[in-house]
Design a protein that fits this description.
This protein is 64% helix and 0% strand. Helix 1 (3-16) packs across helix 3 (37-51) and helix 1 (3-16) packs across helix 5. It has helices spanning 3-16, 29-33, 37-51, 57-60, 66-76. The two termini are 17 Å apart.
Length: 77
């Protein structure tokens, strides 16, 4: 696992009180965390601060899994 993926999953686990050990890179972020699109925007804001990146909305279209999200973050770093 990449360090971005590890950090991303740690932030998501803590924010939404989901057991870190239950998260897998291929998991759907929305389903696994039980979040809606508004909560996903909040999570993205937190991740942008955590990783010191800015990710435009268009780059997030089609991103569903933790691995895809980490790859999107890595492209901006």
């Amino acid at each position: 696992m990449s360090s971005s993926l590890d950090r991303l999953m740690q932030v998501a686990s803590k924010r939404y009180d989901v057991e870190l050990a239950s998260l897998r890179p291929e998991d759907d972020v929305f389903e696994k965390l039980g979040i809606d699109s508004f909560q996903a925007v909040e999570l993205m804001s937190e991740l942008e601060l955590e990783f010191d990146v800015e990710i435009p909305d268009y780059e997030l279209q089609g991103v569903r899994t933790f691995a895809q999200l980490a790859a999107t973050i890595d492209k901006r770093r």
